[in-house]
Write a structure and sequence with these properties.
Order of helices and strands of chain A: HHHEEHEEEEEHHEHHHEHEHEHEHHEH
CATH superfamily of the largest domain in chain B: Cobalamin-binding domain
Number of helices of chain B: 9
CATH architecture of the largest domain in chain A: Alpha-Beta Barrel
Distance between the termini of chain B: 30 Å
Largest sheet of chain B: 5 strands, parallel
Oligomer: heterodimer
Radius of gyration of chain B: 18 Å
CATH topology of the largest domain in chain A: TIM Barrel
Helix content of chain A: 40-55%
Strand content of chain A: 15-25%
Strand order of the largest sheet of chain A: 3-8-9-10-11-12-13
Strand order of the largest sheet of chain B: 2-1-3-4-5
Largest interface: A-B, 33 and 30 residues
Helix content of chain B: 55-70%
Strand content of chain B: 5-15%
Radius of gyration of chain A: 21 Å
Shape of chain B: elongated
CATH architecture of the largest domain in chain B: 3-Layer(aba) Sandwich
Structural class of chain A: alpha/beta
Distance between the termini of chain A: 19 Å
Chain lengths: ~400, ~210
């Protein structure tokens, strides 16, 4: 790895998550599409943020064609693209449920989603977005789980891209420097909650522990076998595993440390041991909420980082660092509510945390959540400008 | 009599298997213990301990949901034996998620716990128009109006509901309780609600306190 002053964005992230020196602290944000729509209406220049890529034109015809490929806010604002280059292994049900509208009223639309859940969405103006209300889930008991499992065959060849040619992918990963390279895994809590809904999944730990044990065992098998080829091919060229979980609220984790230890920990250890064997040891758990009561167990499970450390739920990056040292690399924790206020509140929030974390290392700066919809473009620019001034270590 | 009620409370507080608790409740009924006593001195005492453990971070969401489901199960035994006039309700709560917000997990957990604690609930669901809240307060005359919202973009609706209550001359007839991840004490004061809570257990405790005033 190069010395400071000449680092690429990828090197900054990799050094930071390994507690090594960086020239400039990496900075990561994620954006709701609805926030981008709001910012466009407030003057975000589309011509400087929209990406166009040449691909085979949809319609299954043989012509390369320029097509819109989303927004690149990373280059525009100067954030690091922590998503970066993603290992392209599909985790969803195969075949997918056909997403379609199954009902509509004046105010709502009801859809069957790709996971098989049924969700109701408000018909709203663009930035009045709310998450959908899930009204039904595909897994309810052992019978429906056994049925659903048929869509979770880890060895289904469709999990890998049609052009999965190992040497070509190794080369692509070797060359990529715009951010970290990462592999996505949904932790067992996130997995179960998506398939059963949060209340039913949580209740099943008590009312149907056999189902939870069976699902957790299968999750372990499914996860390891799904990623085996990619992980054994790319090994430590995968900079980080992004372990999506979302298992906590303001009060604390949704399940107790006792349940975590009994039902999750043994399986988590198996997955992280497999990753470690393949020289991948940076595993970032993404969960909102107050994780403090289970952080010891999270570390024991083999997780080595956490993001976004929601302040509103009582998380404080300085306290977590003090308690756990370099057992966890950390990201986020700049209080979205203070940033939304702007001015002195915004500057105080950054000043109270950044110097400490620059000194201790192992930190990626950023908000404590996906940028909320109530932060307008001007406020975000104010935040970006002030933060960027303070990211260099010299 | 005290022994068996203590056992019910103890087993419930420790979230023992619901079959065991049902068995104890049936034993209590065989001993001719009044249903009201079983509810108050057994089950609700146990539920209060569950709430205390939740606040002490010994229990979490899964435990709360399980406690509510035990209560529901046991009530299927007790309910047919209760004549409606003998049911002492703690009070009436009208509840709903505000307009533009269709999150309901927190609201539903509060509803289950409040019901288990003896409150009658009139649940208006999600995405409720401010006028609907006012109409229900006028019609049902609840002790508490519970407003839920998850998002920073939808909590301003709570202010509108309170303004509507004022316009209808109903604001001082009902306690207004705010719930949801985004509500803060600062916001509560600003809009003139009676309380704001960030978890269901605190909300139910507060409603009980209000009823005893």
């Amino acid at each position: 790895m190069k010395e400071p002053e000449t680092m690429t964005p990828r090197e900054r992230v990799v050094n930071a998550i390994h507690f090594k020196k960086v020239d400039v602290l990496p900075w990561y944000e994620s954006y709701y599409p609805d926030a981008v729509l709001r910012w466009l209406s407030e003057g975000l220049p589309a011509h400087k943020t929209m990406k166009i890529e040449w691909k085979l034109r949809p319609g299954r015809i043989m012509i390369n064609y320029p097509m819109f490929a989303g927004f690149d806010l990373y280059s525009f604002f100067g954030t690091t693209n922590l998503w970066g280059l993603v290992v392209p292994v599909d985790e969803g049900p195969i075949p997918r449920f056909k997403q379609m509208k199954i009902g509509e009223t004046e105010r709502y639309e009801e859809y069957i989603m790709e996971t098989g859940a049924i969700a109701r969405r408000l018909k709203t103006k663009y930035w009045g977005y709310t998450m959908p209300q899930f009204v039904d889930f595909p897994v309810k008991d052992m019978k429906t789980w056994e049925h659903y499992k048929k869509r979770l065959n880890p060895e289904d060849p469709r999990r890998y891209p049609a052009d999965w040619e190992k040497d070509a992918y190794i080369k692509i990963f070797e060359e990529y420097q715009e951010g970290s390279t990462r592999l996505g895994i949904t932790g067992f809590y996130g997995f179960g909650a998506e398939l059963m809904g949060i209340p039913n999944f949580n209740l099943a730990f008590y009312k149907n522990p056999e189902l939870i044990s069976e699902m957790a065992s299968y999750w372990e098998y499914f996860t390891i076998e799904r990623i085996r080829d990619a992980v054994e091919t790319l090994k430590d060229r995968i900079d980080m595993v992004f372990w999506w979980e979302d298992m906590a609220s303001k009060h604390g984790p949704n399940i107790s440390p006792k349940l975590y230890k009994e039902f999750l920990l043994p399986h988590y250890k198996k997955v992280t041991e497999f990753l470690n064997k393949c020289e991948i040891n940076r595993i970032l758990m993404d969960s909102d909420g107050n994780l403090n009561p289970i952080l010891d167990l999270v570390i024991e499970a083999g997780i080595t980082g956490t993001w976004p450390l929601e302040v509103n739920s009582g998380m404080d990056v300085r306290e977590v660092r003090k308690k756990y040292g370099n057992k966890l690399f950390l990201g986020g924790n700049l209080d979205k509510r203070e940033i939304a206020k702007g001015g002195e509140a915004l500057r105080n929030e950054i000043d109270s945390k950044l110097p400490v974390m620059k000194q201790s290392g192992g930190y990626i700066a950023g908000l404590d959540h996906t940028v909320p919809l109530d932060i307008g473009l001007e406020r975000f620019k104010e935040y970006a400008d002030y933060l960027k001034k303070n990211l260099p270590l010299s | 009599m005290k022994d068996i009620l203590d056992k019910i409370a103890h087993n419930f507080a420790n979230l023992e298997n619901s079959n065991q608790i049902s068995k104890l409740v049936n034993e209590a009924l065989e001993e001719q213990i009044p249903v009201f006593e079983i509810l108050e001195k057994g089950l609700r005492k146990g539920l209060e301990e569950v709430g205390r453990k939740f606040e002490a971070k010994q229990y979490f969401l899964a435990e709360l949901l399980y406690a509510a489901s035990i209560m529901e199960e046991v009530m299927t035994i007790l309910r047919p034996r209760l004549k409606s006039e003998t049911i002492k309700k703690e009070g009436l709560i009208v509840l709903g998620t505000v307009r533009g917000d269709i999150h309901d997990i927190g609201k539903n957990i509060f509803k289950m716990l409040a019901e288990a604690a003896g409150f009658e609930i009139h649940d208006l669901g999600v995405d409720v128009e401010p006028e609907k809240f006012t109409e229900m307060v006028k019609e049902k005359k609840p002790n508490v109006l519970g407003l839920s919202a998850l998002l920073t973009t939808t909590i301003p609706e709570m202010r509108i509901v309170i303004e509507e209550l004022k316009k209808a001359g109903l604001r001082d007839k009902v306690k207004v309780l705010l719930g949801g991840n985004a509500v803060t004490e600062e916001f509560r004061k600003e809009i003139g609600a009676d309380a704001a809570v960030d978890d269901a257990v605190k909300g139910v405790e507060l409603c009980k306190e209000w009823m005893s005033e």
